[in-house]
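Good morning,

Both structures are done.
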Amino acid sequence: MHLDLNLLTALDALLEENSVAGAAERLNLSAPALSRTLGRIRRITGDQILVRTGRTMVPTPHALAIRGEVHDLVQRAREVLEPERGLDLATLNRVFSIRGHDAVTTAIGPSLLAAVREQAPGVSIRLLAEASSDTNELRHGRVDLEIGSTEPDLPEISHATIGHDRLVAALRPDHPCADGDLTAERFAQADHIIVSRRGRLKDPIDETLQGLRLRRRVVASAPTSTAALYLAAESGLVVAVPEHVCEPTLRVLGLRTRPLPFDLPPVPLVLAWHQRYDNDKAHAWLRGRIRDALAFYEQVTA
């Protein structure tokens, strides 16, 4: 069988975009031309690859099974066939997808986007919300970089720990706990909101309080730190958040922070990416700009 690498490239784009029109735009092709290519792919694979559900298209089980492998094959082919050359940011045309906690997005966003606009006008950034459950999107090539607090388990995922933050209690300046000695008893007597992407109403702080024979009232959980901090500002609740990465939001909302009255492990900040990008110059540039955006973090946690 004659192997056409263009079909693999088209298949990769189709499985990334889940849309003929989106993949065509990405490949600078017309939608009818890519639709014909999809027809060829279907005949060769014996699978529909993408099927229409209402107004959207969804991948078939076979397409989901091969998506990561197809992406890897296309990347390896490009590495083999493209000549070795330096990175030209002025002509770089690429979309990077970055997934992370909302506080991280807020912290890195201004600096990162300023660098992109100034240095790489052909680059676009997708800032994606933290997933509600663990995913393999780095492995499958749907996300270029994840920023979180845990080191990856998969051996093919590279990572770098930027630094460590500490949890603090955030509260309004007029809150009763804003002044005086914040003891564990006073902390536990306050009403709290916690950050949980899964909607949990307990976290490690409750275990620590239990060890001190204390119990707090958690009024609510919020899926993001931004939402929790806003509700703390509006409702007079207390919320524990990483101090430095949440600093921009804390400043805008006018919230005060207090050290927690008990010891908790520091919160790491970890960059993770698939090892296929270890030597990718454009990806290395992106990682560098994110490190620049988090330079304050390295300083305060050194």
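Second structure follows.
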Amino acid sequence: MTLLFLGGTGTLSSACAARAVARGHQLTLVTRGRADHRAPDRAEILHADARDPEAVAAAIGDRTFDAVVDWVAFAPEHVEDDLRLFRGRTGQYVFISSASAYQTPPRSLPVTEETPLDNPVWAYSQAKIACEARVWEARDAGMPVTVVRPSHTVAPWSMPFRGGYTVIDRMRRGAPVLVHGDGLSLWTLTNHRDFATGFVGLLGHEGALGRAIHITSDEVLTWDAITHTLAEAAGAEARIVHVPSDRVAAVDADWGDSLLGDKAHSRVFDNALVKRLVPDFAAPTTWAESAAEMVAWFDADPRRRVVDEAADRTMDALIAPLL
């Protein structure tokens, strides 16, 4: 198949690009060139701003593609630009939404693709919901579309904590580590390579047309367990301090929105649909394995071990009154 990725070097998309090329697909990436080292060798790279429709149009010319995936669409106008450019030029337009768009907090678990979309807190998720509405309008007008809803997906360079490497640094120097709420809400972390297995299997799949599909691991963890596992991988101990999510929000609104609009609530997913459509999909990589890979990636190069001083100070300020 001929595939076009708008983006293609991020946490999810880089693994999907590698998987697509390994499966023999002809892949073209449109990137700004900032992380081309993550692109697979056999992918064609076109340098353009994916959010500049004129630049994308100039880069691809009159070419058509079996599937077009937009990894960097975060607002309805981004989707509208895509639909104008690719209507009649692709057999499948794939919009990357988010599992955070599902009802928050969820009224029942596990979450399925039929769970309503409703996030009253997080603007990011609300924008994804609005984007999906544009995609479904295009479907109803006859365009072949698919919506994919990833949940929390990790790569070696993509930490599941605020501040990135800062959390590992705090663990290693014995500083307390902030965990939101009581640490017992249930969460799912999916390795990006596992996500790619399911995702690439949906490309060109007639059964995926006109549908929304989420792709996640089946491993269910508490946030305390996630934190302790990372500490173990880092050869350290996690001195956990539980901080209410609303207290975090009062100090850092952006961080608070990502908690109250997503991570503060238990999320467990039913992956029956993607397993039916892509029989070889599995998510065998455990969080312990991903955490070990993550620590090894940071330890391999001192330049990667960047402490976010602002995030570090915010954590200290939130934790100090509770010690």
